Description:
Helix content is 68%, strand content 1%.
Amino acid sequence: MSEQPGGPVPAIAGDLAAALSWRPASDKFRLLAGIFLAFFAAYGVIDLAVAAARGWPDGFGDSFSLWSWGRFVNDHPAAEIYDPAALHSAQLSLGMDPGAAYPFGYPPSYLLVLWPFGQLPGAVACAAMIAVGLPFYLWASVGANWRSPALFAALAAPTTAIGMVSVQTSFLAAALLAGGMRLAATRPVAGGVLIGLLTYKPQLGLLVPVALVAARLWRTMASAAATAILLVLLTSLLFGGAIWPTWLAALFAFSREFAAESSQIRHLMPTILVALLQLGVAPAMAQLAQLAGTAAAAAIVWTLFRSGPQQLAGAGLLVAALLATPYGFLYDMQIVTIAAIWIIAERHSARGALGTGEVLVIILTLISPIVLVAGTSNFPLATLALILLLGVIVRRCRRLRSEAQPARLLDPTRW
């Protein structure tokens, strides 16, 4: 005997569907989010407390290296920063452990960021880097809505504590990338300026030209290019015209040295290349796979942005940026936290619900940086989480297109 329409089978199916869906405005989603954010906040407090107990510079990751680079430019010809021997000698005089090595392989424009901090005492410079970068990062994450629950999510996320402890300029880099894309459609010149400033860390911006061309954001692209050219001119004026050729000449040697000595820090890199190396894949095959991953990430970003600079497309770019580069690090994963916030915000704005699988992928993505810090496994959890999160974004965009639903544009005034 078959069940009649409206009988117990459809009712059970409806109850199951409701149980497996998570509306961002629902009480059960808020409860789940609250539990995990409380856990993340506790992790952050403990992480920061341990760092503070160790003091500067031991407790604060790369703060000494960044400060020493800024200090070097103050006391030496800037181009000599690409001379490993000269830089190492200067760093020893600043109190560096003789067994440590902090070579400088970034573009000269990075010195425009570091030089002001080099004028300060080391511990003060460390605090200033956090104080300058963190508010900018929070704006890029949630816009002007400072009372949004997303603000607490951005603060409590493990990547925020990790960024504060590592004291890289990752808050600034994440803000420039996410903020530039947030402004790209509505304020193209300002958005282009932020993207152009990101050229000090070019590995995170590999896919930005793909997104801008796909979305036909020509004014943003022109503004970004003009800003990058001005940075070259400004650094040449301040540090001498020879600094750019010196960097290019030193770049290949730096890359070879990094590849030879990176085994001790591979567990901190959520990239495709390192994931495969950790699994025992031969370096040549891993490099080919990384190239294939970069191409695939570029194709996905192109497809996402063909419909314009929508919020989900922006989230996809942030995730794909780490899959496209072989040189991403743990502290760069702040852009992935922003992507997760934007995914939830889009679903909230559409009054839709996240599936249980999508919620699990977001949780896995937010937890994976903690696993990277622990370094207890060669399993590429973070890389897998990035791939799954990008899949969530692509699937959602395809569904919106098939249903002919309007996608939400990136908006600098709302989250």
